[in-house]
Write the C-alpha cells for this entry.
Amino acid sequence: MTDVTVAHAMGSEPPRAPSGAARLLMPTGGAGLAAHVERLGARPFGSPPLISEIARSGLRGRGGAGFPTAVKLNAVAGRRNPIVVANGTEGEPLSAKDKTLLLRSPHLVLDGLALVAEAVGASVSVVCIDRSATRVASAVEGALAERRAAGSDRVAQEIRLTPTRYVVGEETALIHWLNGGDAKPTTTPPRPFERGMGGRPTVVLNVETLAQVALVARFGAEWFCRAGTPEEPGTVLMTVGGAVSRPGVYEVGLGSPLTTVLGSAGVAETSVAVLLGGYFGTWMPATGMRSRCTTCGSPGRSFWLPPKSPTGNTSSSIRNIGNTGPG
Ligand SMILES: Cc1cc2nc3c(=O)[nH]c(=O)nc-3n(C[C@H](O)[C@H](O)[C@H](O)COP(=O)(O)O)c2cc1C
C-alpha cells in the first residue's frame, strides 16, 4: 500500500474508481462539490509522496508538449515559496477540451490544483481562464466559492481571467501577463520554475493534467495505468469537430486509433484529410487514420478535426490568428 492510498482513509467517503475510459467528465448529477464527492470520494491531502506516485503513473502533461508531470513538480518542490498555475486558457479556437472539463468537472481540476500546491509546499495557487469563456469562468468561480465555504483547501486558490489570445496559454506569456506585462512569450532562461509569477518559482500545469493528478491521488498509479499504453498511460480528452454528426469532447485511452475517436463522433470512415492538433497542427491524409492518439505526437493540444474543406479551414485559421495577435 502506498502513502497515497493510506491518505484515502482520511476521506469521509470510500473512493469509487471509474472503470473504462470515462474518467474525467462528470457524467450525471451536476458539477457541484457534493455530487463530485459523492462520485469520487473526498480528496486526500497532497504531500511529497504524491509526486512519487505521479512519477510511477507515468503521467505526462496534457497541455501539448507531453512533458513528465512529476519532473516539473520536483523542479519547484525544493524551492522557496513556489506558486502553482492551472492553465485553463485554451486559446486554440478548435479545441474545447479544457473548457468542457472545467464546466463539467471543475472540482476535479481544483482538487488537482490543491493537491499539487500542497505537495510542492506552495502558499498560493492560481487558475487562469480565458475571459471570453464566461460560462466557464462562472463555473469555476462558483466552484471556488463552494470550496471556500466547505474549507476544502489549505492553499488559497485564486482565479485570473486572461485576454483572448492564442499565445496567452504559452507558459512564459501567461506568466508575463500575470506579472502585469503583455501576454507575449519571453525569452528563457530564466524558466518559470526558476523565476516566474512575482519572481517566485512557478509551475504551470494544464487543467486536464491537474484533473488526472486528482485521480492518481485518489486511486493510485496502478489504476491510472489500466488505460493507455505502457509508453503513454492514462486517458486523454480529444475535441472533434467539423464535418461530423456528433462533434464534441471525447475521452479515450492513449494509444487508441484515431478511427475510434472518429467513430464516437459518428464518422465510420473518412476520405478527406483531417486537421490534427489544431491551427498549428498538421493535415493528416485519410490513409493515416490508423495513427494512434498521443499527448505529444500532435502539435498543440491532442485533438483533431475532420474538416469540410481543408483550404477553408486553413484560411479561417490564418484569419483568426491575424485577428487575435499576441498583444
Ligand atoms: C503557442 C502556444 C500556446 C499554448 N497554449 C496552451 C494552452 O492554451 N493551454 C495549455 O495548457 N498549454 C498551452 N501551451 C503549453 C504551455 O506552454 C505549457 O507547456 C503547458 O501549460 C504546461 O502544462 P502541462 O505540463 O500540464 O502540459 C501552449 C504552448 C504554446 C507554444
